[in-house]
Design brief:
mainly alpha, about 0% strand, 11 helices
C-alpha cells in the first residue's frame, strides 16, 4: 500500500475517493494526521478535473467525512471534560490558552463564530473542541460546522479544479513531477507557520507543536496569506 506521507499523490491516485474520505474523516475527528488538509483538497480538485471522479461524488464524500468526523470530535470533547481535553490537547498543540480563547469567542459571538473560525487557517484547529467544551447545543453546532468546513474546503477544491490541470501541464512541460512540488509546497507552508507563530509573543504557551498542528490543517499559500493578515490585524488579541 502506498505510503500516505511519503507519496501522497500516489496514495490518492490509487485509492481515490476512499483515500480522501478516510483521511478527511480521521482529520475531522481530531486525529493529527500529518498531511495538510487543504493540500489534500487541492489535489482532490485536480483529480476531479482530470476525470478520476466527479465533483458531486467528491462533495458527498467530503460532506459525510465532515459531518461524521466533526460529530465524533464534538462529543468526545463534550463528554471527556475540560481538564482531560487540556491534558490531551497539549500533546497535539491545542494549548489551554488557545482553547479558552476559542471558547470565549463562541460565548461572545454565538454559533456564527464556528463558521468564521473554521474559515480562518490556524484558528480552525480548535473550534470543534471548543464548541464541545462550551457545551453548545449539537443541533446548533452541527449545521454551522458543516457549512464552515464545506466553504473552507470548497474553495480549495475549486482552486485545484480550475488551476490544477494547467499547473500540471506546465510542470510536465519543464519535466518537473507533481508530487515533489506538492511536498515542497507543504515544507514552505510549515516554514511560514513557524515564522508566524514566533511573531505571536502574546501567547505564552505557544509552541512549535502548536505550529505543526496548525500547519496540518492549512498550508497552502492562500491560507498563509489569510493567516498573515489575521496576525497583522490582531497581533495581541489573546492577552
Amino acid at each position: 500500500m502506498p505510503d500516505l506521507v511519503g507519496n501522497p499523490g500516489d496514495f490518492l491516485a490509487t485509492y481515490g475517493l476512499i483515500a480522501i474520505f478516510t483521511v478527511m474523516l480521521l482529520k475531522e475527528a481530531g486525529l493529527p494526521v500529518p498531511v495538510p488538509s487543504d493540500l489534500i483538497m487541492i489535489t482532490a480538485g485536480v483529480q476531479a478535473a482530470t476525470g478520476a471522479f466527479s465533483l458531486w461524488q467528491l462533495g458527498v464524500a467530503l460532506l459525510v467525512a465532515i459531518f461524521v468526523g466533526g460529530t465524533i470530535q464534538y462529543f468526545l470533547a463534550r463528554n471527556l471534560g475540560r481538564q482531560a481535553i487540556y491534558r490531551v490537547g497539549r500533546l497535539v498543540g491545542l494549548t489551554a490558552a488557545r482553547l479558552d480563547g476559542a471558547i470565549g469567542r463562541l460565548q461572545r459571538r454565538g454559533p456564527v463564530a464556528i463558521f468564521v473560525g473554521l474559515n480562518l487557517p490556524g484558528a480552525r484547529a480548535g473550534i470543534v473542541v471548543a464548541a464541545g467544551l462550551a457545551r453548545l447545543a449539537y443541533a446548533v453546532f452541527a449545521p454551522w460546522m458543516v457549512a464552515g468546513s464545506a466553504v473552507f474546503y470548497g474553495w480549495h477544491i475549486a482552486l485545484g479544479y480550475l488551476v490544477g490541470p494547467s499547473a500540471t501541464t506546465l510542470l510536465e512541460s519543464v519535466h518537473l513531477p507533481i508530487v515533489p512540488v506538492i511536498a515542497a509546497l507543504a515544507v514552505v507552508g510549515l516554514g511560514g507557520w513557524l515564522v508566524l507563530r514566533r511573531r505571536r509573543s502574546d501567547i505564552a504557551e505557544s509552541s512549535t507543536l502548536d505550529s505543526l498542528y496548525s500547519w496540518s490543517e492549512a498550508a497552502c499559500p492562500a491560507c498563509l496569506a489569510v493567516a498573515a493578515v489575521e496576525r497583522l490585524r490582531a497581533p495581541t488579541t489573546s492577552r
